[in-house]
Design a protein that fits this description.
The protein has a single domain (12-292, 308-347), classed as ABC transporter involved in vitamin B12 uptake, BtuC (Orthogonal Bundle). Helices cover 71% and strands 3% of the residues. It contains 16 helices and four strands. Strand 3 (297-299) and strand 4 form a beta hairpin.
Amino acid sequence: MDNKIKRDLVLTCLLFILLMLGTWLAQLYLNSYLVRILNTACIYVVVAVGYNLINGITGQFSLGPNGFMAMGGYTVAILMLPLAQKEQVYFIEPLIYPFSAFTFPSYLFGLALFLGGVVAALAALLIGFPTLRLRGDYLAIATFGFGEIILVFANNLIPLTNGALGIKGIPGYTNLWWTVGLAFLTVFLVKSLVNSSFGRAFKAIRENEVAAEAMGINLFRHKLLAFVISGFCAGVGGGLFVTLIGTVSPSLFTFTMTFNLLIIIVLGGLGSITGSTITAVIFAFLQEILREVEAPHTIGSWSLPGIPGMRMVVFSALLVVLMIFYRRGLFGNKELSWQLVIDWVSRSKNGKA
């Protein structure tokens, strides 16, 4: 291991320690509203970074993260819901066996998240196996259809999902320790993957599939790997999300969720993990700030009614403006690195000197 790698590893460990310290302080001093926004922001980071791996870094247009999030969310909800609550929730039709006979204790929450990610990854494997052998926009069509199919199943598989009523009373195990830790882990692992030979192959596929194949890159295997990892991240994010809000229903994971994630990765820059991370946090806070746009207002003698959905109009307008004037997003495909930070600090010191 050379000195540069050792230095980066030490700095990454120090950053993790600082994040954990910040998490501890946030849990102590921030109100529950701000903590909830931070939790939502970190969940967006987990899903958006994984989503950018397939859409931005590998260049394959997927429209199915809402379906993968739904699968992970329902998996975690069913596993973590207490037995007494299962009897109350599933009053139309009882929950199917064996899920009706057991529940995971709180200390197995991490295992439940992992299983939610695995279920979503297996779904990604099943969808990606036939579609990723094709070229063009077939993946977008297939994944969009997959997301809609999952919602239909969620509405009709009442013995498993409780239908349109959804599952309520899910224990709130999601907290900043989980969300910040998993966001950091996701960014670290995906960034490490992108910086490896696999990452270089992903980028080669994005730039030119014919040239990448001529260089000996197995297109199908690399596309499938990126797609499965993206699905796993979405499944984990879905599990975190449902245990944050305490409920899951088909209306929670509509195509609007995919649209939100598209806004995040496009605004941040397709192919930029840094851009997805920063934009995910900004997006979570803007979602709350822009609630004022949907609220009724009185200006003098004028009374303006609230218009639900205006937040998405604002986000869509931002997306259009950015695509016109800055098509590559805020970061393009650039990444922050420790070397850039060190160079910036050195230039700052020299400038002051």
